[in-house]
Design goal:
mainly alpha, Growth Hormone, Chain: A, 15 helices, membrane, MFS_trans_sf
Length: 404
């Protein structure tokens, strides 16, 4: 393979009509969505004067809503289409974020849950569109770019919220977050990307199979591994903070997280350029194995070195999960499947921090990395065993994922 082939592969993906503007609009909306928890935290703590625990309850309500609403919205998109469903999510986001600064705390908790239920499904729609707009050979590189955009949003979104919340006000920042979410949803609605490929819009492919026909053992295996990698990553973030706090260097946490994110961007680009995929269970297992010893880093510079390995494997693992979901599910249920994927990841992120937090409380900060890694390792092993025992509902597209 020549050195220009990886670049050519990404150029081919970006040359797909409509894909570049879709990724750009998705990046705007996802940056705001990744910052929504921080925006709500700042409003509750600074504007309303409540505790961080109270802010956590608001964020938990939002997260629970997103997890429950994802599959429902995906199913609605499968049945009714994108332009019918998106307005149902855009209008509530506009109303919610406009009112956030003036809502009483109790009302804010309930409203956050409803806003989560009706969150604009930017990530799920983007992944469906990528599946429909690209060929099988282009898809992994396209999902790598989508994963890289996600890493950039996580690096930028919360930092921007903190900066402007301290220089302006949390209320103004919440309006900005809401405006970006609404603008992203409206942009996707106007772009109206295809969610099914041309060959999937007629005949049997356009039908909606029953859930038991497609939600088989292998789909469950992939969703479980998606849950596992999210739980691992959520735990790693907490373990980084705990490690540096234990060393009296908590101010360096942002730098360590940024190093991990930058390494993930590099890993995603490298993986997207590879000629052949790597099994999901293997990548997740490797990610878990490099996570476990990271807590042994004696100083923050060594911790930066340790998280490089975690970062390099993060985006590739996320890409393989996304790619597997797209390949395993028929077109008629792809929206519901991507919604389930988002819910599994959301549940993993929600569970990772408390589980790792308990491990840190009963041991040390190094125990946090160990707990996060062991959770990922368990998910990888279980996913592998389920994958080997299951049968493929869509055998031809996923043949390359079974190579060991």
């Amino acid at each position: 393979m020549t050195t220009v082939e990886p670049v050519t592969r990404f150029r081919q993906v970006l040359a797909v009509p409509g894909l570049t503007p879709l990724l750009g609009i998705s990046l705007l909306a996802r940056t705001a969505i990744t910052a929504d928890a921080m925006a709500l935290t700042m409003v509750v703590v600074v504007t309303l004067g409540h505790s961080y625990a109270a802010a956590g309850a608001v964020v938990a309500a939002l997260t629970a809503g997103v997890a429950l609403g994802g599959p429902v919205l995906g199913r609605m998109i499968d049945r009714r289409g994108l332009r019918t469903v998106l307005p149902i999510t855009i209008v509530p986001q506009l109303l919610f974020w406009s009112a956030v600064p003036v809502l009483p705390y109790v009302v804010l908790v309930g409203a956050s849950f409803v806003a989560g239920l009706l969150m604009v499904p930017v990530q799920a729609v983007t992944r469906q569109a990528i599946t429909a707009m690209t060929t099988a050979e282009q898809r992994r590189a396209a999902f790598a770019l989508e994963s890289v955009a996600g890493e950039v949003s996580y690096l930028v979104g919360p930092a921007v919220v903190i900066l402007f919340a301290t220089t302006l006000s949390p209320g103004v920042v919440s309006w900005g977050v809401g405006a970006a979410i609404v603008a992203g949803g409206a942009g996707i609605m106007l772009l109206d990307p295809p969610l099914r490929a041309e060959g999937e819009t007629s005949g049997a492919a356009a039908g909606r199979p029953r859930r038991r026909e497609w939600l088989g053992v292998r789909v469950v295996a992939v969703l479980l591994m998606g849950f596992g990698v999210a739980m691992l990553l959520s735990g790693v973030d907490l373990a980084i903070v705990a490690t540096l706090r234990e060393a009296g260097r908590v101010s360096w946490a942002a730098l360590v997280v940024a190093v991990c994110g930058a390494a993930s961007v590099v890993g995603g680009l490298v993986y997207g350029a590879l000629p052949r995929p790597v099994p999901t269970w293997l990548l997740l297992g490797l990610l878990a194995l490099v996570t476990i010893p990271a807590g042994l880093a004696p100083t923050w510079p060594w911790l930066c070195v340790a998280v490089v390995g975690i970062g390099l494997l993060t985006a590739p693992t996320l890409v393989t999960v996304t790619d597997a979901v797209s390949r395993l599910t028929p077109a008629g249920v792809r929206g519901e499947a991507t919604g389930l994927h988002s819910s599994a990841a959301g549940a993993g992120f929600a569970l990772g921090a408390p589980v790792v937090g308990m491990a840190i409380d009963v041991s040390t900060s190094a125990g946090g990395f160990a707990a996060a890694g062991l959770a990922g390792l368990l998910a990888a092993l279980t996913g592998y065993l389920l994958w080997r025992s299951g049968t493929a509902a869509v055998a031809p597209p996923i043949a390359d994922l079974t190579r060991t």
